[in-house]
Amino acid sequence: MIKLIATDMDGTLLTDDKQLPQENIAALEQVSAAGVKVAICTGRMKSGVIPYFKELTIGDFAILNNGCSTYSTKDWSLTAYHALSLAEIADLVELCQAYPGIYLTLVEKENLYVLADHVPEIVAYDASLVFTQAIATDLATVEAEDFLVFQAMFMGDEELLDRFQQEQAANLAQQFSVVRSQSYIFEAMPKGVNKASALAELADRFALTPDQIMAIGDGNNDLEMLAYAGLGVAMGNATAEVKASTNYLTRTNEEAGVAQAIRTYILNKGLA
């Protein structure tokens, strides 16, 4: 029996224009009424998730920042987190200095900071997607105010970021969990932290085993989560790597693929 559904947001639960299809809402409400817990699992920070809960009236937990933080959606209290140390942040700042045009951004509990003397257009754009504004700052301020930084993101034009990833990914992976989550974002998180690790922590909280969990996703930052869940479902619009990682496939995010997955693999088989 499936007792927990973990679903990604962008490219999965949401359409390309960041809307929440009513068909997805209805399917999640149906399984929630049957006693299945629902966890949103996304790379977004809190400000980019809360507004959707005005439409999504169900849900128990939200795993945010690609697994770095977990919130109870009943009161948005922080129930678990993993953060970068000041020493780790300093290492990332030093590395970024060798790549003009790539901007290091830090995701704190409430704010998005960019280590620069201004907010670049690409950073401002990304901040707008999570309904906030980025703040320009420096390392001295980060150290003095002892920010709680969940994750760091290198942002830049795709071609420049491709070179950065090719040259630095292997080195960074020795100290951090890393993922290319968007064409313009390469992320560094505390070592060993991803959506799967946070989902495993949540499962332990409720004494659930992986075979009681269904996960749905589309991007490479969903790979570990899909592998961990007993039932990992790739979206029709998923990357080739994601599709190759599982035998279960649903429709695209433009076709309410989350709802179809719930009906096909849970409700129609009496697994809820």
Would you mind describing this structure in some detail?
This protein is an alpha/beta fold and 272 residues long. It has two domains: 4-81 and 193-267, HAD superfamily/HAD-like (Rossmann fold); 86-190, 2-Layer Sandwich (Hypothetical Protein, Haloacid Dehalogenase-like Hydrolase, Chain: A, domain 2), CATH 3.30.1240. The protein contains ten helices and 14 strands. It has helices at residues 9-13, 22-33, 86-96, 121-129, 139-145, 158-173, 195-205, 223-228, 240-244, 257-267; strands at 4-7, 37-41, 61-64, 69-72, 77-81, 103-108, 112-115, 135-137, 149-155, 176-182, 185-190, 213-217, 231-234, 248-249. The strands form two sheets. It has an eight-stranded mixed beta sheet with strand order 5-4-3-2-1-12-13-14, with helices on both faces. Helix 2 (22-33) packs parallel to helix 10. It starts with a strand and ends in a 5-residue tail after the last helix. The model has no long low-confidence stretch (mean pLDDT 95). It comes from Streptococcus cuniculipharyngis. InterPro entries: Cof, HAD-like_sf, HAD-SF_hydro_IIB, HAD_sf. This is HAD family phosphatase. One of its GO terms (molecular function) is magnesium ion binding.
Write the layout of secondary structure elements.
Elements lengths: L3 E4 L1 H5 L8 H12 L3 E5 L19 E4 L4 E4 L4 E5 L4 H11 L6 E6 L3 E4 L5 H9 L5 E3 L1 H7 L3 E7 L2 H16 L2 E7 L2 E6 L4 H11 L7 E5 L5 H6 L2 E4 L5 H5 L3 E2 L7 H11 L5
Parallel strand pairs: 1-2, 1-12, 2-3, 7-8, 12-13, 13-14
Antiparallel strand pairs: 3-4, 4-5, 6-7, 6-9, 9-11, 10-11
Helix pairs in contact: 2-10
